[in-house]
Amino acid sequence: MKKLSIIIPVYNVEKYLDNCLNSILEKNLENYEIILVNDGSTDSSGKICNKYANEYNEIKVFHQENKGLSGARNTGIMHAEGEFLMFVDSDDFISKDIKLNDVIEKLNCDVTQYKWIYYYENKNKYVYFSNHNQYKGSIANILRKKIRDGTISVSACDKIVRRKIVIDNKLFFKEGILSEDLDWSLRLYLKIQSIQDINQDIYVYRQQRKGSITNKIGKKNILDLYNILYYWYHYEYEKEQFKIAYYNYLAYHYVILLMLINKYNCDKELKSKIYALEDLLNYSENNKVRLCNRLFNTFGKKTGIYILKIYNFLKNKGLIKI
């Protein structure tokens, strides 16, 4: 069995795919595979995938009709042979300063989370974030502490996950929805027995790329995020400690949802449904949620959300750390 399967969904990224693949290949990894899933690209991305697959035995390529990011990742999961899975988006890349073989050798938990760097292509600027604290105890308690200090992440791209956990629990990504990483990570954390953090800046996340789906926010983003929060708010948790941990995590994303409906047009019916989840703000172990509560109580929703957006902008730029 291979140690690691790196799954890379590919869709119309001819400008970035070489950079992504070379950032992995230059690591001279051992006992691994790269699975490229060409998700119906209409540019030369598919040809680039074939070129690399022909040159490197470690690379497999699968071509399919467009199914979206979730569908492409699921195809990769089904063809993966590694003990662990790593997800890399094809417009991102791996930091050149990281000895990835050393990281892979130390994998022994169901989930290993590492740090990432924001890369602003238009400014050629890198933004680094604070180290993660190392916590011990039950998964629920670790999650709660990570929610409190702001180091928990929904992204599939800052984690290496034991494949058996994914397969045995059918933890595939839901197709046809946005915020799929949030839903996936919430299902994942309920099934794992161990988690660890590696304080290394492994993953470089390209920001503000023209054409990226993360730059296209609309009603579907708002509706899908609302549906995910609603589902997990009403989920029947087997353990109270997970319920409390998850409610605090949902509260963090509820604040994001409030910022979205303030920025983008949203009909009154959907706004009413969203505001009906306002009790989530009572679970305020995270600094951002506490700040939101204070702003709402002091200035009201509209002004409070505007100030919160400024805070979020400054944090994403790395100008503030809390």
Characterization of this structure:
The protein is α/β, with parallel strands linked by helices. The chain is 44% helix and 19% strand. Strands 1, 2, 3, 4, 5, 6, 7, 8 and 9 form a 9-stranded mixed sheet that branches. Helix 5 runs parallel beside helix 9 (240-263). The mean pLDDT is 90.
The major pleated sheet works out as: 9 strands, mixed
Radius of gyration: 20 Å
**Measured distance between first and last alpha carbons:** 42 Å
Quaternary structure state of the chains depicted: single chain
Helix-strand string: EHEHEHEEHEEHEHHEHHHHH
Shape, please?
globular
Question: How many helices does DSSP assign?
Answer: 12
Proportion of residues in extended strands = 15-25%
Average pLDDT figure: 90
Kindly state the number of beta strands. Answer: 9
| Portion in helices | 40-55%
Structural class, by secondary structure, is alpha/beta
Low-confidence residue ranges: none
Tell me the layout of helices and strands.
Blueprint: E1 2-10, H1 17-25, E2 32-39, H2 45-55, E3 59-64, H3 68-79, E4 82-87, E5 93-94, H4 100-105, E6 111-120, E7 125-127, H5 139-149, E8 159-162, H6 163-168, H7 180-189, E9 195-207, H8 219-233, H9 240-263, H10 268-275, H11 287-299, H12 301-316
Helix pairs in contact: 5-9, 8-9, 9-12, 11-12
Main attributes?
322 residues, alpha/beta, nine-stranded mixed beta sheet, 9 strands, globular
What is shown here, in short?
The protein is an alpha/beta fold and 322 residues long.
